[in-house]
Amino acid sequence: MLLTSSPIEQVSFYNRLFYIKRDDLLHESFSGNKARKFYSFLKGDFSGCHKLISYGSAQANSLFSFSELAKLKGWQFDFYVSHIASFMKQNPKGNYRAALENGANIIEVGDLMPGELLESYVKNTIIPNEKNHLFVPEGGRCQYARMGIDLLAQEIICWAENENITQLKIALPAGTGTTALFLQQYFKQQKYDFEVLTCACIGGDEYLKQQFLELCLDETQHPKILSSSKKYHFGKLYKAFFEIWQKLKLETNIEFELLYDPLGWLTLLEHLEREQIERDRPVLYIHQGGLLGNETMLPRYRRKYHAKLT
Question: How confident is the model at residue 116 (pLDDT cuts 50, 70, 90)?
């Protein structure tokens, strides 16, 4: 399976025109930023590989995408998590459910093991005992991701040239920041006046900067991090997130996911309103998929805010 170019739509939101790169429409079961990051695994020759190994959250978007990749390639797939809630085990939903249906081995290693310790455990305890495997860090944060993201950059450049756009702002929220970083690097190297704007959804601005540095020491090639005036904790439910998600769906007729996109849009709009982003430059927002996660997020929001937001 090879990915095809995703469409770009023009929408009006908050009395401003935006372009939306619909990477959520790339493929029925393999879409969004994970499809871009894992493109090299689809296209490359990994004939000696029999098992895919990664780690993260039991509801991570990468869990489902990894399971799809393993299914397509005929690999066994082991995914290590710190904890799986008992309710989720009894009522599988979202990315967890879909990954199980694809045959993923989701291995719980300990409630008290935070992300950094989980990463160390997998790298230092599991990987040395494995053979004929492919190990991919959490969320696809590795150089393998560059091929698919370069392809995304080329699609954006082709579209911009057809639209006679020479200066462009490209916005997307970040987890590890891999997509934003490799996009900005490509535009810099090809000498396009395209600036990538992102915001930290996990761990704050300093954490995101560190993720960039692990993949690229040249800070001149890093994306611009937009700081939010409010502190949000990843995975926590916020009324403002649900409200902007609803408004986006109503005004653009596009469904976004509920973990990253609300903060991405709130932060982007905040900087536009403060005129910290040039208002005369077109803005392209990348829809990175992840909609399967809404299967669990929406019921949580409705339970918490049902009386106020119906």
Answer: low
pLDDT reading at 309 higher than 80:
no
Q: Is the pTM of this model over 0.85?
A: yes
Which of 3.40.50.1100, 3.40.190.80, 2.40.50.140, 3.30.70.330 would CATH assign to domain 43-135? Answer: 3.40.50.1100
Instruction: Evaluate if residue 83 carries a pLDDT over 90.
Output: no
Residues of the chain above pLDDT 90, percent = 68
Per domain, the residue ranges of the chain are 8-34+144-309, 43-135
Write the secondary structure of the chain as one string of H (helix), E (strand) and C (coil): CCCCCCCEEEEEECCEEEEEEEHHHCCCCCCHHHHHHCHHHHHCCCCCCCEEEEECCCCCHHHHHHHHHHHHHCCEEEEEECCCCHHHHHCCCHHHHHHHHCCCEEEECCCCCCHHHHHHHHHHHHHHHCCCEEECCHHHCCHHHHHHHHHHHHHHHHHHHHCCCCEEEEEEEECCCHHHHHHHHHHHHCCCEEEEEEEECCCHHHHHHHHHHHHCCCHHHCCEECCCCCCCCCCCCCHHHHHHHHHHHHHHCCCCCCCCHHHHHHHHHHHHHCCCCCCCCCEEEEECCCHHHHHHHHHHHHHHHHHHHC
Does 43-135 match 8-34+144-309 at the fold level? yes
